[in-house]
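In this section we walk through a basic example: taking a raw amino acid sequence and producing a predicted 3D structure, encoded as discrete structure tokens. The instruction is simple. Fold the sequence below.
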Amino acid sequence: MREHLVNLALKLVGCPYIWGGANPWAGFDCSGFIIWIYQVFGLLPSGDWTAQGLYDHFKQVPPTADTIAVPGDLVFYGAGVHGITHVMLRLTATLVLGASGGDHTTTTREEAARKGAQVKVKPINYRQDEVVTVHVVFLGE
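The resulting token sequence is shown next.
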């Protein structure tokens, strides 16, 4: 299932970043992207999740030596575990995928295009405030 999740997520590269967006037709913000992907695969109950809420939900599964840098896990950014402001999907040990480049003012496709705000692959250290990677257990693992 992990490979299928990552493959679906990669098909969304180029989808616009829209503040509050939570599906491929309207666009995504960072948490909306993760929510949509994870809900497609039954890994997250419905709800209005933020990046902090996603961390709080999934933090119970700390990564181990065998699970660090596993594709499909979540990488959180912010001012610490109580100040999570951004989330991305881990692709490799050095790459993440997610909606980025926008902010609360990015509410239209035109604004997203002007800012280059979209779902994209980035180096994991593209931000200096990486907090933690959280391993997500998929059914059958």
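Looking at the output, two observations stand out. DSSP finds four helices and seven strands in the chain. The first strand starts at residue 22 and ends at 23. In the next section we compare this with other chains.
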